[in-house]
Every structure is written in structure tokens, then in C-alpha cells.
């Protein structure tokens, strides 16, 4: 399920994102005590965190707040604008600056780890397409923080654009796989270990010459280090994904170092 941001009214969305919300529309009832844009956004995030993107609706958010959906429209015009606000609020969890005392590479690694963890806390965010950014202050602040870090690498503008895109996509892609690994057992009713055992047994029976047919793949799997243990909520696949993320990040940053100007 891919969701596109920016489907609400552009003026209303940007006004809410940047802290200058319009006055309530004429004819609508005045604000009720205890209700605010922040409360609605927080409730929306809670719904999406607990039940996923498919469960998000103005009605579901209203129910979590003990209000009707209609009561929310004085503050947030609709689901499109709410989704923009939720996306930006989640990215506000990321630090806006990093210590560069240990160099740009250590800071870039910390940025990537923070973003990876943020996406795993709110996996529904990964369903929001990056084709049309929200353009909120937190989203742009996260980008500014990464650019400030990479300034130390002294890349050309063209290289910098490519590195930023590669880092974002590495983090998002690997976080999505890790999040799906967490969700797979609950969604299918089959634990990871059981799923892999059943199919490995079938491969052994149906393809006894597997190692001869796929020697490089066999060598890769047999030579792989054991992944780190999960945090209690994860799976074997999630642990493998985390390891692959960190290895891929290190190799990507090796390339950035090699491309450093001067």
C-alpha cells in the first residue's frame, strides 16, 4: 500500500505544518476544550502505530479522542492534511544536529541509525511515497542535518545529491524490510523459523544439486556471520536485515570517503 502525501489543500496543509493555521471556517462551531491540532496529530500517529495505515481515518482518530470525526474538522480539514502533519511530526523525533567532533562519517552513521530506528517505531511512514515530499519543517530539518554532516566530506553538488538520495533509500528500504519481518509472523500465523524450515526441507528434497547449481549463493550463505540477536520484538530475518543495513551503510560511506574532494 503506497500513499502519496500532499493530497490535501496546499494552503491549509502548509499553514498547519509551518505553525500559522487559519482561523476556523465560518459557520463551524468553536474549538472545544481539550482538542487541538497537536492532540489530533498525536492521536493519528497512535492509531497508525497500533493498527497500521489502513486503519487511519478521521473517524478512528476522533474515536481515540472521544470525539466525532466532525469535531476534528475545525482543526484539521481532512485526512490528507492530517497525514502530512503526522509524517512531519514523526520526523521531528530525529535530532537536528550531530556532534562532528569524531568526523563526518561517525555523524552520518549516527544519523542513519537514528532514522532507521525512527522508521521502525512508526513503520506506516514507510508507506508514504517520497515522490512528493511533505515539505514540512521537520522533514526539511532532517535533510538539513544530513547536509550539514556531509559538508565535511567536501563532495561536489552532484555527488552530494547522489549520496543523500542513496543514504535515504538505504535507510528506508532496509527499515521497511525489518518492519515487514516483524509483521510477517502476526499477519500469516507462521513464525519465521517454521517458514524457513519447511522451505529449506523442500529445497533439500527437490533440488539435491542446489550447491552445484548455485555455488556463489551457497558460499555466501555458508560464510555469513551469525546476526545479532533481536530486541525481543524482532525475528531472525529482522536481525539479518539490521546486519545488512549496517554493512551496506559502511560500504556506502567507504565510497563517500573515496570520492572526497581534496
Sequence-ordered SSE layout with sheet pairings:
Blueprint (H helix, E strand, L loop, with lengths): L9 H8 L19 H15 L6 H8 L3 H4 L6 H13 L12 H18 L15 H14 L6 H32 L3 H15 L3 H4 L1 H8 L13 H24 L3
Would you write up a description of this structure?
This protein is mainly α. It has 2 domains: 82 residues, Homeodomain-like (Arc Repressor Mutant, subunit A); 156 residues, Orthogonal Bundle (Tetracycline Repressor, domain 2). The chain has 12 helices and no strands. The N and C termini lie far apart (44 Å).
| Low-pLDDT residue intervals, each spanning 5 or more residues | 229-234
Q: How many domains make up the 3D coordinates?
A: 2
Main β-sheet description: none
In N-to-C order, the SSE pattern is HHHHHHHHHHHH
Q: What distance lies between the first and last C-alpha atoms, to the nearest angstrom? A: 44 Å
CATH homologous superfamily assignment of the largest domain:
Tetracycline Repressor, domain 2
Helix residue percentage: 55-70%
Task: Estimate what percentage of residues fall within beta strands.
Answer: under 5%
- The radius of gyration computed from the alpha-carbon positions, rounded to a whole number of angstroms, is 22 Å
Average pLDDT taken over every residue: 89
Might you state the CATH topology name of the largest domain? Tetracycline Repressor, domain 2
Amino acid at each position: 500500500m503506497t500513499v502519496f502525501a500532499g493530497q490535501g489543500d496546499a494552503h491549509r496543509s502548509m499553514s498547519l505544518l509551518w505553525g500559522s493555521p487559519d482561523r476556523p471556517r465560518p459557520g463551524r462551531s468553536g474549538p472545544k476544550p481539550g482538542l487541538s491540532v497537536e492532540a489530533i496529530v498525536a492521536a493519528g500517529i497512535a492509531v497508525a502505530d497500533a493498527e497500521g495505515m489502513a486503519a487511519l481515518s478521521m473517524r478512528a482518530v476522533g474515536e481515540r479522542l472521544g470525539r466525532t470525526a466532525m469535531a476534528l474538522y475545525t482543526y484539521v480539514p481532512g485526512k490528507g492534511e492530517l497525514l502530512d502533519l503526522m509524517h512531519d511530526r514523526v520526523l521531528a523525533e530525529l535530532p537536528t544536529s550531530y556532534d562532528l567532533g569524531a568526523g563526518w562519517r561517525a555523524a552520518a552513521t549516527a544519523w542513519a541509525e537514528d532514522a532507521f530506528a525512527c522508521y521502525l517505531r512508526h513503520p506506516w511512514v514507510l508507506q508514504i511515497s517520497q515522490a512528493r515530499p511533505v515539505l514540512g519543517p521537520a522533514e526539511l530539518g532532517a535533510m538539513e542535518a544530513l547536509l550539514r554532516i556531509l559538508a565535511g566530506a567536501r563532495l561536489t553538488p552532484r555527488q552530494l545529491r547522489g549520496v543523500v538520495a542513496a543514504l535515504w533509500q538505504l535507510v528506508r528500504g532496509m527499515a521497511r524490510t525489518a518492519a515487514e519481518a516483524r509483521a510477517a509472523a502476526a499477519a500469516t500465523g507462521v513464525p519465521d523459523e517454521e517458514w524457513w524450515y519447511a522451505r529449506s526441507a523442500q529445497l533439500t528434497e527437490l533440488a539435491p544439486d542446489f550447491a552445484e547449481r548455485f555455488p556463489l549463493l551457497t558460499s555466501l550463505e555458508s560464510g555469513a556471520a551469525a546476526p545479532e540477536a533481536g530486541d525481543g520484538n524482532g525475528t531472525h530475518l529482522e536481525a539479518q536485515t539490521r546486519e545488512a543495513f549496517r554493512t551496506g551503510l559502511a560500504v556506502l560511506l567507504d565510497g563517500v570517503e573515496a570520492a572526497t574532494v581534496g
